[in-house]
Specification:
Length: 405
C-alpha cells in the first residue's frame, strides 16, 4: 500500500518549509518542493482524495533526527523524487573525495551546497513553478577551484503536455534516422498521473575557464523512490555492436549484481528495486536513450524519468570510485538499488534511484550549461500503464519481472 500524499505533506510541514506546486491543467496533481533542502522535489501526487499516493521516498526517520540533532556530517538521505547534485562522484577529479583520501565509504562526503545548505527562492512565476538559486565554490580532488551559480526551476506540467512531449521525443536507435515513440494517447490519458520537470543551470562565475585538464563538473539529477518486493527498474538501451557502442551496461560501481538481480528483456535492462542489495548500473551516452523507469506491480505505480537524448560526442564525467579511470568516459543514465552498505549493516534507506546526467561543463567565465530532467508518475490498471510502457521500454510490464526469490 502506498503512503498517502497528504500524510507525507503533513509530516514535511512539521519539519521544513515547502512550496506546493499545482498542475496548470486544473487537475488535482501536486508537487512538493523544499527550497531549504537544495530545492529538491520531495514528493508528488496525482489525485485529490485523502488516499492519493505519494510517489517520492521521504525518509521520515532521518528527517526527525535532523530536526532534533542537526545534519549528519557526510550525507543526509532526506529523500526526494528529484534532487540536484553535481558530478563527478569519483575519478581523480571527484568533488566527493578529498585529494589523497581512499575511495571508501568512510572518506566519502557530500558537498554542503548539495546536502545541507538552503537555496534562495528567487521567483514564483505561477502556481505551477518555483525558481531557486545558490552560489557556491567547490574544490575537486585534484585541487581545482570552481566558482559557480546554480539556478533551478521546478515546474508542474499538465498531463497532456507531458504525454505529448514523451511521445514526440526521438529514440536513439542503432542507426539513423532516429525514430519517435508511438504512444497510444487515448489509452495512456486514462491513467491518473503527475508530471514535473526541473530545469537546472550551472554558470561559471569565476575567473578561470573550466577545461578537461583540471576536471569538469556535470549536472546530476537523482530521484529517490520507495522500494518494493517486486519492483523493477527498466533501462532502455540502444542496441548495436559493442565494438562501436561499447559495453551494454556498466555494472562495476559496487561490483556486478547477482545474476538473479539483473536481466535483459526486449530492449531494456531490468534491475531489481527491492532495497535489499546495494548495486548500481549505468548506461553510457552511446547506449542510453534518455529514458529510465521503474514499476511497482503491488502498488500499480509506474515512474518514468527522461532527459534530452545524450550526446556521445561530448565528455561525460566518470563517477567510478578510482583514480585510474578515464575521467571523461562516464554514464548518462544510472539506476541505484539501496541495501546494506557493509555486510550485516544497515542500508541508507532503503530506496531505489533513477538518475540522469548532463555532459561535462566546459565553460568560460560567464558561460552556462543547462540540463532538464522530467518525471512522470502514473497509477492504474496494467493495461493503461502498458499504453505508455510498451513503446517506451521495448517490453510490456507483465514481462518486466523476476522470478520470486
Amino acid at each position: 500500500m502506498a503512503i498517502p500524499y497528504h500524510d507525507d505533506r503533513r509530516f514535511l510541514l512539521d519539519h521544513v518549509d515547502i512550496v506546493e506546486l499545482h498542475a496548470p491543467d486544473q487537475s488535482a496533481a501536486r508537487v512538493l518542493v523544499s527550497p531549504a533542502w537544495q530545492g529538491r522535489v520531495m514528493t508528488a501526487t496525482c489525485g485529490p482524495d485523502a488516499a492519493a499516493p505519494s510517489f517520492g521516498w521521504v525518509n521520515r526517520g532521518h528527517i526527525k533526527r535532523v530536526s532534533t540533532q542537526g545534519f549528519a556530517p557526510r550525507f543526509n538521505a532526506l529523500g526526494g523524487s528529484d534532487r540536484f547534485w553535481l558530478g563527478p562522484e569519483g575519478s581523480r577529479y571527484s568533488i566527493f573525495f578529498d585529494g589523497g583520501s581512499p575511495f571508501d565509504i568512510a572518506h566519502w562526503r557530500t558537498p554542503p551546497c548539495l546536502d545541507t545548505e538552503p537555496w534562495l527562492v528567487v521567483g514564483r512565476p505561477s502556481p505551477s513553478e518555483v525558481v531557486m538559486r545558490r552560489d557556491t565554490s567547490l574544490i575537486n580532488r585534484a585541487g581545482a577551484l570552481f566558482d559557480l551559480r546554480i539556478d533551478r526551476a521546478v515546474r508542474a506540467l499538465s498531463a497532456s503536455q507531458a504525454l505529448a512531449d514523451l511521445g514526440s521525443a526521438p529514440v536513439p536507435t542503432s542507426g539513423e534516422p532516429r525514430q519517435t515513440r508511438s504512444l497510444n494517447h487515448a489509452a495512456a490519458s486514462k491513467a491518473p498521473l503527475v508530471a514535473y520537470e526541473s530545469i537546472n543551470t550551472i554558470t561559471n562565475i569565476g575567473a578561470r575557464p573550466w577545461r578537461r585538464e583540471t576536471g569538469l563538473l556535470s549536472i546530476w539529477i537523482l530521484g529517490m523512490y520507495p522500494p518494493g518486493e517486486r519492483s523493477v527498474i527498466m533501462l532502455p538501451f540502444r542496441a548495436g555492436n559493442a565494438t562501436r557502442l561499447g559495453p551494454l551496461v556498466n555494472d562495476a560501481y559496487f561490483g556486478p549484481p547477482a545474476a538473479d538481480r539483473m536481466a535483459v528483456r526486449g530492449s531494456s535492462m531490468l534491475f531489481r528495486a527491492d532495497g535489499r542489495s546495494r548495486g548500481k548500473l549505468g548506461l553510457s551516452p552511446r547506449r542510453a536513450t534518455g529514458i529510465a523507469g521503474s514499476y511497482d506491480p503491488d502498488r500499480s505505480m509506474l515512474t518514468i524519468v527522461s532527459c534530452p537524448p545524450p550526446d556521445p560526442s561530448r565528455p561525460y564525467v566518470n563517477s567510478m570510485w578510482a583514480d585510474d579511470v578515464d575521467p571523461f568516459i562516464g554514464d548518462a543514465i544510472n539506476a541505484y538499488n539501496d541495501g546494506p552498505v557493509t555486510p550485516g549493516g544497515e542500508p541508507l534507506g532503503p530506496f531505489h534511484e533513477l538518475e540522469t546526467s548532463s555532459p561535462g561543463a566546459e565553460l568560460d567565465p560567464g558561460e552556462s550549461l543547462t540540463h532538464t530532467h522530467r518525471t512522470i508518475h502514473l497509477t492504474g490498471p496494467i493495461e493503461q500503464l502498458d499504453a505508455i510502457a510498451c513503446p517506451l521500454f521495448g517490453l510490456c510490464l507483465r514481462d518486466a519481472s523476476f522470478p520470486a526469490p
